């Protein structure tokens, strides 16, 4: 009987140690604490402002990111899911994204951001063996362009 009680206590202890992973793709984006690649908190408003400045000034794209969502992108090579913050224009003509990792009690943005422009497909950003890519399945659009940015400041 003592052995049964001890085994039960150990089993319950192990079960209580399991933590449930948060499904950030189903969470309201404004309720998630975001951190930039320098481990500093960043608000959604500041992030959108930074991304718009980057695409308009550095990447010379005449567009404004208006929609943000957290999605899982499946790597074409490894079949591994990667959590990504995806920004897009209202017409989906430009998409920009950054990988996310769990950090503190929220998510941390990668120092690498990718932008895809002139791609005809709805979700035109992909990962292939951990590397970003842009694609378009429609043959009439052959000007699908990827711009990858590494943040250093």
Task: Explain what this protein looks like in three dimensions.
With 153 residues, the chain is an alpha+beta fold. It has one domain (23-150). Helix content is 20%, strand content 37%. It has 2 helices and 9 strands; from the N terminus they run αββαβββββββ. Strands 1, 2, 3, 4, 5, 6 and 9 form a 7-stranded mixed β-sheet that branches. Strands 7-8 form a two-stranded antiparallel sheet. Strand 4 and strand 5 form a beta hairpin. The protein starts with a helix and ends with a strand. The mean pLDDT is 81.
Distance linking N and C termini: 63 Å
Mean pLDDT: 81
Instruction: Name the helix and strand elements from N-terminus to C-terminus, one letter apiece.
Output: HEEHEEEEEEE
**Number of H- or I-type helical stretches:** 2
Question: Structural class of the secondary structure composition?
Answer: alpha+beta
Approximately what portion of the residues adopt beta-strand conformation?
35-45%
């Amino acid at each position: 009987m003592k052995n049964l009680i001890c085994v039960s206590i150990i089993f319950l202890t192990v079960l209580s140690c399991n933590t449930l992973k948060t499904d950030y793709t189903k969470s309201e984006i404004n309720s998630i604490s975001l951190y930039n690649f320098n481990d500093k908190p960043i608000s959604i408003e500041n992030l959108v402002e930074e991304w718009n400045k980057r695409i308009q000034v550095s990447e010379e794209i005449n567009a404004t990111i208006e929609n943000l969502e957290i999605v899982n992108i499946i790597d074409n090579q490894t079949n591994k899911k990667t959590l990504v913050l995806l920004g897009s224009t209202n017409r989906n003509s430009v998409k920009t994204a950054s990988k996310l990792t769990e950090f503190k009690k929220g998510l941390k943005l990668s120092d690498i951001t990718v932008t895809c422009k002139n791609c005809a497909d709805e979700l035109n950003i992909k990962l292939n063996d951990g590397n970003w890519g842009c694609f378009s399945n429609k043959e009439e659009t052959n000007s699908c362009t990827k711009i990858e940015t590494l943040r250093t400041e």
